[in-house]
Design goal:
With 143 residues, this protein is of the alpha+beta class. The protein has one domain (2-140). 27% of the residues lie in helices and 48% in strands. It contains one helix and nine strands. It has one helix spanning 2-40, and strands spanning 42-51, 54-59, 65-71, 76-81, 84-87, 94-97, 103-107, 113-126, 129-140. The strands form two sheets. The protein has a five-stranded antiparallel beta sheet with strand order 1-2-3-4-5, with helices on one face. Strands 6, 7, 8 and 9 form a four-stranded antiparallel beta sheet that branches. It is elongated and about 70 Å long. 23% of the residues are buried.
Length: 143
């Protein structure tokens, strides 16, 4: 009986770890795609790394300024365009880890940005079983 209980608990723990991992991977990949899309829709001369946690850009399609910010206090990575704030992650059981190098820009001597790199972590917990994974992407800017 004890062996069956142990096996059953192990199965539940394994299922919870799988659910946490799926949340982390799905949210991390969604954020990577959104960050890449925002950078590719901007001109190299209109991108500015504000600090290690935020980057500003002008969208080529509509001319609207956008700021992407990683904020562990609010537990989000948000894209702000005008008065619209788009949280790239909003699940209550998912957390964001903003390292001190969330965003960095590589620039030419002309100060045009040639690439933007993002680094962040996503954590999730299901029934007490937690998983954390770090994600990074380097996006070459189009002119």
């Amino acid at each position: 009986m004890t062996a069956i209980t142990g096996i059953t608990l192990s199965i539940f723990k394994s299922q919870n770890r799988t659910q946490s991992t799926n949340k982390v991977v799905n949210n991390g990949n969604f954020i990577l795609n959104e960050l890449k899309r925002d950078i590719l829709n901007s001109s190299s001369s209109q991108i500015t790394c504000i600090d290690n946690y935020s980057v500003g850009m002008i969208n080529l399609n509509d001319g609207v300024g956008t700021t992407i910010n990683c904020n562990t206090i609010n537990n989000n990575i948000a894209s702000t365009s005008g008065s619209l704030v788009r949280n790239l992650i909003s699940a209550n059981d998912t957390s964001i880890i903003c390292p001190s190098n969330f965003v960095s820009c590589t620039t030419l001597p002309s100060l045009d940005v040639t690439s933007v790199s993002f680094n962040f972590g996503v954590g999730a917990t299901t029934a007490g079983v937690g998983v954390t994974q770090y994600f990074s992407i380097n996006v070459a800017v189009r002119n």
